[in-house]
Amino acid sequence: MVPVTDAVAAYGAAFGLLILSNISSQRTANQIFPFVMLPQFFLAGVFNPLQNLPWFLDVLSRIAPMRYAVDLVRNVYYGFAPSPVPAVTAGPAENLVVIGGMFGVLQESGQLHAGIARVLAGTRGNVYLLAPILMVVISAGSTFLGLISEYLVIIQLMVVLAERLGLDALFGTAVVAIAAKIGYMTSVTNPLPLVIAQPIVGLPVFSGVTFRLVTWIVYLAVGIGFLLLYVRRSGYRADRVAHGPAAPLSGRHLAVMSLLIAAIGVIVYGAGRLQWGNLELGAFYIFVAFAIAVTARLPAGTAATAFLTGIRAMVLAALLVGLARAVELILRDGLVLDTIIYALSRAAQGRHPAIVAQVMVLIQMAIDILIPSTSGQAAVTMPILGPIGHLAGVGPQVSGSAFIFGNGLSNTITPTSGMLLAYLATGRVPYGTWVRFVYPLVLVLAALSLAAIAAAVLVGV
User: Where exactly are the structural domains of the chain?
Assistant: First the structure.
């Protein structure tokens, strides 16, 4: 390996000298080099496999000099045989860091503040009009299409909007988090839980839409009312918000805005139709950051500094998300969950069907603390609780709804939910602050869920 590492070192030094020969000062080099090197760690396959990359990322990967150095070292180490060690793929923690960098570049472009000024001018700074519209759109995307991680990219925008309205970061984060979580809590046609949970209990996928649609409308109305009540208690007054006529958007601002709209469309299409995971999304966020910098005509040093500033703000948050994921892995791989599920399921035996259905919701809430993954929880719990519900007289549709309610309720508040922690970290809202804010809403929604699930049993849903 020594000759190989020497060759790679010489190769890297030559690449560095090539870049440095075109840079005029050390300060510029310090700013540009991280912007040149960091994307290559993802594009060269250092942390993730390179199979099935989108075509544009595959092109960038083949251009990246680091890829060939990594391939050489890896092939020599494994004797030019396939690696026996499974590749480590990117997860929500890595995506969180990359999103921070992307928003650092976006903020430096000036588009963020210019676009928000136009929104405030259009609504005259009236949060009682703006917040419900935003929450309906966000929640609809979640409950009908299954969008959840995709909303990470708009939380910082909501926080900046909240600041312009004279409100805090908690409000901006809550606009997205409450709406998205309620969407998942009802999952009218959300494919992620329904495609897994419903076939396990013998149901056609997407059946029972009417019941879930009614609960979504009721729950979302409660969530909007809860947030607006918080706004009112915070002392907000629309006449104090500075929302004068906004300056027309420049050509660069319109170009960046068009780029962002197109990027959101690509994210939705990629995640829904192309089955993009964290790896593909993370790579795409890097591409969007680069595209924003080029479109806004930011100097390379300025864009690199903005990218690193955004990353720096997200490092601690990404660590917390990774630790939450570790808790789930330890409990699952250590087979601790099997014992817990068996013990909890015994509480649902020998009772009235309506009571059994309510206990199933509570069991799913408890299990969600240990398995915050929606698909993972469905695969683990439904084969056990589905038959128990059937023996107790609870229909399969009600068993599926109990899973959806329990999973959504806990994911709104549990500290092991990586996506919730990612939301809070992106909005820079402490977890304790979020719990104190949202627990009354969770209690109300839990009571509504228990009542709805009992009524579903009684009317024969």
Answer: 2-77, 92-317, 325-459
